[in-house]
């Protein structure tokens, strides 16, 4: 099967057809930005893709623009999953360092890595050891030290999704996004709210639903939240970040083509439209093979990998437009320059927050949660 991305396929059309299909699929066109020589050299020397865009919006007249460059970073693992664990981590860290260097060379202000970036996505195996040794303290672990250093070096807010070990609470494990300030200081963390129980994504074997609510982190570069992977299928999860005032919501993910690729280009974009904020959708890349076979509980033969992580990271804008996606097969960094004031302009135009009927939803949900709930169905008397 072809490995081409949608963008690579569109590029084969006639110029007129390209304009029309992009208008329909990607909305108001984003502008390509010039990329610095330093970023180009890093991408060339370390073999990854870079892309930079700008979302066009009309500047407010009463307040200064709040220009922010949002970076999404996708990568494959570096060493085989049979290598010593810390070697695996160190090799990924070295790779991610180059990708963050490139994001900085493209002027990124706020960046997010993919879900559980420090490790292969081993949840498919259902084996606890050795994999859980990748879990680490959110503030003091190896990745926290590394990301804090990179954030301070570049004055960049960095969101670092990891597997967290909470020693204060009985060595419990969490799927957590840790947010570091542009100063390098730890700001806070959010734990994944929705745990998949689909296909080979057997994550409930490892950790349970998050207990951090829907925090929005107020940073130098806007109000940032994180809806981790499977949470993107839950519109109310997206909505709660919006109600708390998010301007940028990242969706760090790990998902494979056979399961979710047709959904990928829709969900982040839809969330961005419905909640009038920017969304950075990030997916890992590559095929990861594990030492022992595992089954998917579907009667099919046991296997050692669970398919191709298709990358395709992108940024969605509140007016329904989006950047092109990164490659389906290569590591990469995509930067999108936005004016955060655009969130308010879009709210003024579409009035989704004013026309929402939160009180109706609250009442309906409160009823639904009662054990004796009866669905509100009006039956055709002829039935
Ligand atoms: N990591 C994760 O939540 N994956 C679930 C698969 C999907 O939601 O596409």
From TrEMBL:
Residues 68-340 form the CN hydrolase domain. Keywords: Hydrolase. GO terms for biological process: beta-alanine biosynthetic process via 3-ureidopropionate. This is Beta-ureidopropionase. It catalyses: 3-(carbamoylamino)-2-methylpropanoate + H2O + 2 H(+) = (R)-3-amino-2-methylpropanoate + NH4(+) + CO2; 3-(carbamoylamino)propanoate + H2O + 2 H(+) = beta-alanine + NH4(+) + CO2. It comes from Bodo saltans. Its EC number is 3.5.1.6. It holds the Pfam family CN_hydrolase. The keyword Cytoplasm does not apply. One of its GO terms (molecular function) is beta-ureidopropionase activity. Pathway: Amino-acid biosynthesis; beta-alanine biosynthesis. PROSITE patterns: CN_HYDROLASE. Coiled coil: none annotated. The keyword Hydrolase applies. PANTHER family: BETA-UREIDOPROPIONASE, NITRILASE C965.09-RELATED. Belongs to the carbon-nitrogen hydrolase superfamily. BUP family.
């Amino acid at each position: 099967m072809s490995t081409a991305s949608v963008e690579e396929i569109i590029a084969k059309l006639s110029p007129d057809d390209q304009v029309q299909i992009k208008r329909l699929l990607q909305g108001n066109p984003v502008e390509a930005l010039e990329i610095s020589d330093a970023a180009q050299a890093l991408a060339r020397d370390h073999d990854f893709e870079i892309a930079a865009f700008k979302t066009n919006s009309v500047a407010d007249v009463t307040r200064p623009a709040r220009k922010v460059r949002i970076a999404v970073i996708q990568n494959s693992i570096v060493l085989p999953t049979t290598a010593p664990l810390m070697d695996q981590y160190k090799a990924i860290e070295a790779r991610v360092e180059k990708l963050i260097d490139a994001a900085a060379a493209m002027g990124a202000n706020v960046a997010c890595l993919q879900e559980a970036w420090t490790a292969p996505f081993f949840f498919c195996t259902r084996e606890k050891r050795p994999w859980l040794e990748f879990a680490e303290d959110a503030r003091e672990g190896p990745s926290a030290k590394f990301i804090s250093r990179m954030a301070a070096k570049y004055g960049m807010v960095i969101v670092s999704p990891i597997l967290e070990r909470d020693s204060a609470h009985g060595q419990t494990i969490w799927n957590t996004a840790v947010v570091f300030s542009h100063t390098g200081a730890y700001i806070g963390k959010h734990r994944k709210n929705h745990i998949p129980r689909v296909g080979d994504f057997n994550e409930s074997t490892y950790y349970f639903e998050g207990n951090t609510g829907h925090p929005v982190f107020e940073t130098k570069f806007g109000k940032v939240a994180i809806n981790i992977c499977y949470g993107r299928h839950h519109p109310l999860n997206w909505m709660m970040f919006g109600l708390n005032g998010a301007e940028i919501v990242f969706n760090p993910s790990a998902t494979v083509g056979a399961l979710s690729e047709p959904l990928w280009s829709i969900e982040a974009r839809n969330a961005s439209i419905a909640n009038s904020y920017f969304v950075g959708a990030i997916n890992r890349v590559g095929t990861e093979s594990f030492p022992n076979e595992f089954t998917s509980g579907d009667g099919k033969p046991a296997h050692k990998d669970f398919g191709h992580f298709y990358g395709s990271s992108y940024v969605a804008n509140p007016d329904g437009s989006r950047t092109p996606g990164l490659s389906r097969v290569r590591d990469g960094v995509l930067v999108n320059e936005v004016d955060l004031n655009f969130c308010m302009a879009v709210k003024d135009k579409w009035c989704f927050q004013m026309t929402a009927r939160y009180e109706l939803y609250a009442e309906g949900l409160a009823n639904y949660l009662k054990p004796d709930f009866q669905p509100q169905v009006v039956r055709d008397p002829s039935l």
